[in-house]
């Protein structure tokens, strides 16, 4: 056993030695080189990134920490004795550049102006280190068209109340709706919406619009402000002054004759004044009842009918100009007295029914009798009453029947003799004195007897 173990150990040692000679002695790996710090990416940002000619732009730079007076310095940044070099910021590399230096982190901020003669388009803003042209960054700036100021024109710009005015607006290119569609413009008078503007919200087409309105009838004789503002973008707006040259005339009035009627309906006359418009609409509780054409002095006369079924209440009658609902007046009409109370219906008096004739001209010669229904109580009572009567009759019959000849022969004996009447025959009793007796009393023959009735 021992020689075998010694042989196995020697074999394992030989294998290990041959492996060492084949692969060689392990060599130590060289020390890892220190990591190289990547330089920060150089860039500039513009705020804003677009604008009109003459606008100012802020420039913010990053990654200019190696722009120093030492020139091309080894990494990392040279010692603090090296000063930061200037960075040249220019518009399209042109004249009048701006100069700035970066801080220890390589950042800087400066502002530049968009040339006033720049046309709409794309331009480069460049930041360049003055000692190293490789340290450079560029950003794009979009020059937009110079905005056109909004304007509003009123024609006429002055007039009396209810004067029609035409409105024209321009410069509303920025008034847009969803998905770039044209927006709408609303008109106001001294900050309040104008009634019945045509149209109420004006569609913008190419930055311009037109509309019409009438000077409010209650406007004072002074200056007023008409404003057009984009719906949803009120900053896109314009305003204009309108001068009212005359104070408002007499206010519209409506008179009803009579002012009330009792229940049952009737006719009502309507008179109006102060209606300086071509046509007046008359309404009852908001429902139009007719129209009238005022005279030159603004008066009119018309009327309407109150239906008979109109209930007791107060109703509003209004007259207003059809072209300006703000010019109008109201009056109250009253219906008095409740409607008639319907009489209480009297139930009809029943009339005797007459037999209905048989519509069949050929009646059945042998009609079957209709079945008769007898109550159970009546039937049972009748049976019991009949049984009781039969029992009573039988008892009376048995108690009053005559004795038979045999019974008389055994119990009755008689003997005739000239003697006074006496009771000689008796019915014996087994327990006491006789119960019955017979008295015989002879009498002479009375002969024929005649009875005669006389009137007293």
TrEMBL record:
Comp. bias regions, Basic and acidic residues: 438-456
Superkingdom, taxonomy of origin: Bacteria
Keyword Cytoplasm: no
Keyword annotations of the record: Membrane, Signal, Transmembrane, Transmembrane helix
Signal peptide per UniProt: 1-22
Membrane-spanning parts: 376-398
Region (Disordered) location: 336-370, 402-456
Biased amino acid composition, Pro residues: 340-370
Protein's name in the database: Ig-like domain-containing protein
Organism: Streptomyces sp. R33
């Amino acid at each position: 056993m021992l020689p075998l173990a010694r042989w196995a150990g020697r074999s394992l040692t030989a294998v290990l030695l041959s492996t060492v000679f084949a692969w060689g002695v392990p060599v130590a790996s060289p020390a890892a080189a220190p990591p190289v710090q990547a330089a920060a990416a150089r860039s500039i940002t513009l705020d804003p990134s677009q604008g009109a000619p003459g606008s100012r732009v802020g420039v913010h730079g990053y990654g200019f920490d190696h722009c120093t007076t030492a020139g091309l310095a080894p990494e990392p940044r040279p010692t603090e004795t090296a000063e930061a070099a200037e960075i040249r910021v220019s518009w399209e590399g042109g004249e009048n550049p701006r100069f700035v230096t970066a801080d220890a982190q390589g950042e800087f901020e400066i502002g530049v102006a968009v040339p006033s003669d720049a046309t709409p388009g794309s331009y480069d803003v460049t930041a360049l280190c003055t000692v190293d042209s490789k340290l450079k960054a560029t950003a794009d700036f979009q020059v937009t068209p110079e905005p056109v100021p909004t304007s509003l024109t009123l024609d006429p710009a002055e007039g009396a109340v209810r004067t029609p005015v035409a409105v024209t607006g321009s410069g509303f290119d920025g008034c847009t709706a969803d998905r770039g569609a044209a927006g709408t413009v609303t008109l106001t008078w001294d900050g309040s919406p104008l009634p019945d503007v045509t149209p109420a919200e004006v569609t913008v087409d190419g930055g311009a619009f037109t509309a019409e309105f009438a000077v409010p009838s209650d406007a004072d004789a002074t200056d007023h402000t008409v404003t057009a503002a984009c719906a949803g973008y009120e900053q896109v707006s314009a305003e204009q002054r309108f001068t009212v040259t005359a104070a408002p005339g007499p206010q519209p009035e409506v008179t009803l004759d009579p002012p009330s009627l009792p229940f049952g309906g009737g006719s009502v006359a309507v008179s109006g004044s102060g209606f300086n418009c071509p046509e007046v609409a008359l309404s009852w509780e908001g429902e139009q009842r007719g129209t009238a054409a005022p005279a030159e002095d603004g008066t009119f006369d018309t009327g309407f009918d109150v239906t008979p079924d109109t209930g007791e209440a107060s109703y509003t009658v209004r007259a207003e100009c059809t072209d300006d609902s703000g010019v109008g007046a109201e009056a109250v009409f009253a219906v008095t007295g409740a409607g008639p109370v319907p009489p209480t219906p009297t139930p009809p008096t029943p009339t005797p029914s007459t037999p209905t004739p048989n519509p069949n001209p050929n009646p059945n010669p042998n009609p079957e009798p209709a079945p008769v229904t007898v109550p159970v109580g009546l039937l049972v009572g009748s049976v019991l009453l009949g049984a009781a009567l039969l029992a009573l009759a039988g008892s009376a019959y048995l108690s009053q029947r005559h004795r038979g000849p045999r019974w008389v022969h055994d119990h009755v004996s008689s003997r005739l003799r000239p003697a006074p009447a006496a009771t000689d025959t008796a019915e014996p009793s087994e327990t006491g004195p006789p119960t019955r007796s017979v008295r015989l009393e002879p009498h002479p023959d009375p002969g024929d007897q005649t009875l005669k009735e006389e009137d007293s």
